[in-house]
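Appendix B. Chain record.
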Amino acid sequence: MAVIWGQVLICASGCCCGREDKGAAPVPLEWLQKSWKQLSLHKALQLSTTGCLGPCNLKNVIGIITRDMQLWIGGLADEEQYAALLEWFKKSADAGYLIELPAILKPHSFDRFIA
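Structure tokens predicted for this chain:
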């Protein structure tokens, strides 16, 4: 039996995230949820959609929490970034831990309590 070793929190219904009327790019939530199931990522990483995770100035914030660390990503705005995120989660799930963040996502990583 697979062991869930991480949780991915995606702000999709907060005050700003995904809200084009507030200057944020849409969050492709349906695509992410469907892809998550198709790739069986839920066996290693639990995907949860949430309301506001803060910090709102970054918009489209994602928190990744494992037993060893927390990683925060914000400001995602296009399909290429979300595709890279999904591919990274798949490779990490296969490895059993978070592998190095891909270059396209590194500029979006932030310290949650400094941003």
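Further analysis of this model is presented in Appendix C.
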